[in-house]
Amino acid sequence: MACALVPFCSFQDLESARDFLCSHLRQAGAGGTGGAKESGGKQPNWEDDGWGAWEETETPEPEGEEELASKTQASSWLQDCVLSLSPTNDLMVIAREQKAVFFVPKWKQSEKGKEEMQYAVGWSGSLNVEEGECVTSALCIPLASQKRSSTGRPDWTCIVVGFTSGYVRFYTENGVLLLAQLLNEDPVLQLKCRTYEIPRHPGVTEQNEELSILYPAAVVTIDGFSLFQSLRACRNQVARAAASGNENVQPPPLAYKKWGLQDVDTIVDHVSIGIMTLSPFDQMKTASNIGGYNATIKNSPPAMSQYITVGSNPFTGFFYALEGSSQPLLSHVALAVASKLTSALFNAASGWLGWKHKQEEETVQKQKPKVEPATPLAVRQVFGIPDSRRHGERICLSPCNSLAAVTDDFGRVLLLDVARGLAVRMWKGYRDAQIGWIQTVEDLHEREAEKSDFSPFGTPQGPSRVAQFLVIYAPRRGILEVWSTQQGPRVGAFNVGKHCRLLYPGYKIMGLNNVTSQGWQPQTYQICLVDPVSGIVKTVHVPFHLALSDKKSERAKDMHLVKKLAALLKAKSLNLDVVEAEVKELILDIKYPATKKQALESILANERLPLSSLTNIAQTLMDTLKNQEVECVDEGLLQFCANQLKLLNLHESISKLNSLTTQSEMVPSDNDLAKLLRLDENEFTRLQMLLENYKQQNTHPSVRFAEDKDGDLPVKTFLEYLEYEKVTINVKKLDEREYVALGRSLFMVNTALIISYFKRRNQLFHSAFFFLSQSLLLSVWLSKEKEILHSMQSVCCLHAALSHLSKITVAIDEAWDSQSVSPWWQQMRTACIQSENNGAALLSAHVGHSVTAQITDSIAEKKFSQISVGTDADSWEALSLDTEYWKLLLKQLEDCLILQTLLQSKVNKKASQASSLQTEPLGRLSVKKLLEGGKGGIADSVAKWVFKQDLNLPLLRLGWQREDTGSEEEPLQTDSSLLAEAEEDQKSLKTILELLHLAYQQFPCSLELDVLHAHCSWEYVVQWNKDPEEAHFLTRSIDHLRCIDNGHVQHVVFLPTLFKTARYLQLPNEKHFLLGLKRHIIVTGIALMMWNTFIVKRLSAATYLMDKNNFCNRLEKHQKTDYAEGQDVGMSDAAMISFLGSCSDLLQTLMEADIRKDEMQLPVLDTEDAWVAVEGQISLVELALEQKHIHYPLVEHQSVLCTILYGIMKFSLKSVKPLSLFDSKGKNAFFKDLTSIQLLPSGDVDPALLSIRHQFLTKLMSAVAQAQSSSHKTRGSQEELTVVSVKDRDWPSLAVDLAQHLQVNEDAVRRHYVCELYNYGLDHLGEEAILQVHDKEVLASQLLVLTGQRLAYALLHTQTKEGMELLARLPPTLCTWLKAMDPQDLQNVDVPIATTAKLVDKVIEHLPENHGQYSVALNLIEAVEAMS
Predict the structure, then answer these.
(1) pTM over cut 0.70
(2) 499 CB contacts (<8 Å, ≥6 apart)?
(3) CA terminus-to-terminus distance, the chain
(4) Looking at 474-483, 522-531, 796-805, 824-833, which range is the least confident one?
């Protein structure tokens, strides 16, 4: 309890702030040029500005005095800055010349992992408005919140800055200028603030809040209430102007007084004492000195404001201003806050926020506000300290306003009596000293009640006392001292750096009064020390009792003994006998009970003293306390000492018992274990099978700490973990590892039988340690799961231990009712429910059930001893409520074990195939988690596992349909071909199928196949939303969704298989079948939730982005899409293509499910009997069933847009704006709620719109034909991967469907497709497509032109001799027609003549004889025959 220097905050990056404020140091350190740029009101990026390069640049080392001077200058930069810290520690300002940096505290993790507060840069920039002005003083004033629900923290903090130009400006925490005042044209020397405090005594005058501004020959005081209201109004107006600019709130003017200080040479600092009233004696003495014997006085002494200045001639000047002698002046708040916002809105907003142009700034500078003259105020003569040779430097007022500390140029610190004007104390040798005050309030609980003052009536303490301490920082010596005032000694001294700054605000929160300050005690710092070298901010803690530290102070003596005790325990070598005797002597000499308890705690926390010494010391103190008189003994200390003695004795007994060795028994056989657990042969075999599967799959790594080994805990740790209260031993709040370590020190499960320990520990495990024993035993058991599963002998140990503990009266009383729940067994069941080690929990539950049944039978036999059991002794079993709870828990733990085993199984596949989202480990399960996870929690856990393993869909259905027959290999081989692409091992695949089948058996309702597909679909889309680049996640999600749909058809066809599976799973056939009939409703609900939650927002952003002009050009250049222009889609082009295709598939699935959905009443979703008590959020399937019905035309309308977008992206169609294909009604209906009724396009379509749609569909058909041609050309080559695939869907049919929806002539689209196929030389596909065309006459005329282009290329462009001869033999009419053809439009000119001959036959076939071009077609037949 000594004086302490405690660090409470540190700077995150103080060097960057130094480089910003002191550019000359940065240039000197880096050898570079350039200063910090104005940040424009924003926080600078300390990392991106390149300052790290300046720090890393090596500079040539100076030598001698130059090196020392540069180091000193780099460390002492803070002495040249203006510093201010808010008393609530929510803001710090460091300013130099025109620049300033605002620091805000933030909680961050340190390198050791602990949370600590660090100052981070909140704003930086230049504060000067006029050219050449510099910052001279700054204050951070926290303003109180006006809300009733305030927690005591300030609403916001205002920064007040004084400049050399005379301006005083007020800023927000973000550097926004609120208010600027020019109250005097001289430079501002000092800013000081006084806030409201409740008077401690009735006779003390209540002081008002004020802000005082010191100028070279004047002092201005601004009323605190007026300033508070003006700052709030300005802040509100700035916020409104920034938001809308339509508000006009005129803030109230500031009320201030201006005093001209006369008869003083120089003034460098000041304090405002506040309003004071003379005593009647001083009033009469003053009147007699002035008026003589006949002077008269008023009945009430006059009130006056007192000001004290320091400087020269006089060294300290006292000024008194009578209240009412000067009327307050009203300033016009118009420089920073405009009076009108209607016509000059932008100018006003720019004035507040720093946006003014140079011309506007020059106008403001020319039109400076009028400066009011000061009221003369003369210094009080023959008062104070008129020392002509001494020059004052600083003055600091004490919190009680009665004393002031003054520093001078002679290296002295004077303590000044404010009321008398006298120096009452002086300290020498403190040149350039920095000073501050600390006020400490006495804690009444620590005050010693002396024996003479003891009284059974009332309390002897009385009111709390207050002590004041003077803090002096001597930078030249690098020492910080704390002195007790007025005549007290030095109570603390600390070695600190020589370049620190001592900050003493001297005020608290502004805006409080005698009503609002009641009960409001915010955390404020009275004083702090800033160390620029280490970047740490420290505060000084001074206990109250140091003010009483004289030779007769018992508390000071006690503290001296405590320090001596600490030094004794830290000695390098310890002679235990000598140390024990000295420790006993020291602790007995301490008088105060609180100090004595502190000393005993430090002794017990010492790790070097053995247990015997600690016990002897505690026992000696205990005996001494008991021998004292009852009135003088502190009950708390006596009880603490007794409790610690009991814990020490317990630790000693446990250490002795753990040192004993016991011989292990033989390993029990399976029959013995089955009999012990009361299981038949089949049940025990099943238990072994489940545990073996769990062991094989339970391969998760575990961390083992050094302190986790079995054995005794150190005494210090043992006492930290346990506490003794009255007759019970409680465990303190520990983490899981510490709790297990405590249990291992009590129960060494892995050594020998525990029962031998319990027989020796009967005297320890009484009622105080009863429930704690069971809890610690189970914690050790559950933590050693791997050892337990490999050694079934431990089951016998646990059974013996629980049997012995249960025989204690506190556990199971003979009067216990079998129809009530025993707290003893309930505690054990709770531990098993919460445990994530499912194997150990299941075994412990079997042991608990066995012991419970054993005790229940014994109690029943005693109660009903008249029943003759005879030969049927094993045919009956006593029932109890605990037994039924055990059976339920066993079923839950078995289910949880099977599910956990499944989730731990893995599929063998390449690591490179897995996404980073799939490599994250799954959390472990417990019965508690499943009970709190809601009805869908089980299916959700399996869905997460399916996603992590990326299982193919047939595998899930294969596990469901798998029968326990001899023909297991056949379906495995049949379906493994579906999984060949994943390279899964047959062995791991068989294991997963077995575990899946087992899980389906345990959870026939929760893991019903469609429910599982629904959760898998949702899990995949959730993970896709985290990383949209993984486009196959969304594709797999829709595949799972379609499986729900396909499952309906399959179950209807294979009804016998369905009913057979239902009988095998012990489910009602009808209920299971009815659930299958509602799959389409589940599909509709899941798809609708996917659309609303994840799809529609991204699709909307992608649509508007694709509708821009520059999108197709970006696609053509293969650039990654930049979504910063508009809305964030967050996908590359390849992912976008897959996303649009998935959107189209999702809407198509939604429409198909809506068409086939049934209107029957919805069935109730069942839950397994063991899990009916599940609680938590609503399941996914229930949520899907609650979704509204979709509006089919709106979904169809949206599906058309998705198909168009997909076609544009897939085939890279240029100059296509998708939204231009729709009218205003169609555009407005997009991206609306699919369950709502929207106004959709109907009736005739504008011809211009039809033309645009027709152009798009022809482009799409041309792109499809081109893609088909490319795939044929590159088939079998390596370039096949770069070709656009058209196998994902039937694009020609899709385009025709689009034409139908867009009201475009479908036959025209088909004809264009046929022509494009022949144009690309795909005549075999064209022949098939011709069959779909209705108007074949028009098609024949189009194909006739294409045939002519082919022949024109063959005859006219090849220029062969045979071609020229043939051309000469052709009819002139045909020659003229061929010459008019342009072969450049052909995409494929290398078409054989035989193929062209077939095309001519098709033209003749479909062209009527009366057609105008029929004769040309006949001539083409002759030409083709001649060419072939």
Answers:
(1) no
(2) 75, 76, 78, 79, 475, 531, 532, 533
(3) 115
(4) 796-805
Contact by Cβ (8 Å): 133, 164: yes
Amino acid at 39: S
Q: Which residues contact 1415 (CB under 8 A, 6 or more apart)?
A: 1373
Q: Tell me phi and psi for residue 1061, to 5 degrees.
A: -65, -40
Q: Are 926 and 895 in contact (CB under 8 A)?
A: no
Q: How far apart are CA 1038 and CA 1090, in angstroms?
A: 10
What is the spatial distance between Cα 599 and Cα 1194, in angstroms, rounded to a whole number?
80
DSSP string, 1290-1320: -HHHHHHHHHHHTT--HHHHHHHHHHHHHHT
- Contact indicator for 142, 33 with CB cutoff of 8 Å: no
Question: For the chain, what is the radius of gyration of the CA atoms?
Answer: 46
Q: Is residue 297's pLDDT more than 80? A: yes
Contact 783, 704 (CB under 8 A): no
Residue type, 621: L
Helix (H, G, I), strand (E, B) or coil at 777: helix
Reduced to 3 states (helix: H, G, I; strand: E, B; else coil), residue 138 is strand
In angstroms, how far is CA 235 from the centroid of its own chain?
30
Contact 1020, 1033 (CB under 8 A): yes
Is the previous residue joined to 1238 through a cis bond, with omega within 30 degrees of 0?
no
Q: Is residue 1296 a contact partner of residue 1312, using CB atoms and an 8 Å limit?
A: no
Site of tokens 């001083």: 282
Mean pLDDT across the chain: 79
Which SS3 state, helix, strand or coil, does residue 33 take?
A: coil
CA atoms within 13 A of residue 428's CA, in its CB half-sphere: 0
How far apart CA 445 and CA 907 sit, in angstroms, is 67
Q: Which of 749, 728, 729, 727 is nearest to 740 (CA)?
A: 749
Contacts of 601 (CB under 8 A, 6+ apart): none
Helix (H) or strand (E) holding 321: strand 316-322
For residue 634, count CB atoms less than 10 angstroms from its CB and return exposed for 0-12, middle for 13-18, buried for 19 or more: middle
Q: Which of 739, 842, 731 is nearest to 795 (CA)?
A: 842
- Angle 1139-1242-1290 (CA atoms, 0-180°, nearest 5)? 35
Task: Decide if 316 contacts 384 (C-beta within 8 A).
Answer: yes
pLDDT tens readout for residues 832-865: 999 989 888 999 999 989 988 888 887 777 766 6
State the Cα–Cα distance between residues 1160 and 405, nearest whole angstrom: 90
Write the Ramachandran bin of 790: left for phi over 0, alpha for psi from -120 to 50, otherwise beta: alpha
- What does the block give as tokens for 1240? 């959709």
898: tokens are 């099977």
Regarding beta strands 4-11 and 115-126, do their DSSP bridges make them parallel or antiparallel, or are they unpaired? parallel
Does residue 1406 contact residue 1337 with C-beta atoms inside 8 Å?
yes
Q: What b-and-e string marks burial along 899-937, b requiring 16 or more CB atoms within 10 Å of the CB?
A: bbbbbbbebebeeeeebeeeeeeeebbbbbbbbebbbbb
What are the backbone angles phi and psi of residue 236, rounded to the nearest 5°? -65, -40
**Angstrom distance (rounded) from CA 1082 to CA 200:** 73
Question: Which residue type sits at 529?
Answer: L
Cis previous bond, 7, omega within 30: no
| Residue 832: burial class (beta carbons within 10 Å; 0-12, 13-18, 19+) | buried
Distance CA 1414, CA 265 (A): 121
> What type of residue is 974?
T
- Summarize pLDDT for 621-656 with one digit per residue, the tens: 888 888 888 777 888 888 889 888 888 888 787 777
Q: How confident is the model at residue 458 (pLDDT cuts 50, 70, 90)?
A: very low
Give the rounded percent of residues in the chain with a pLDDT score beyond 70.
76
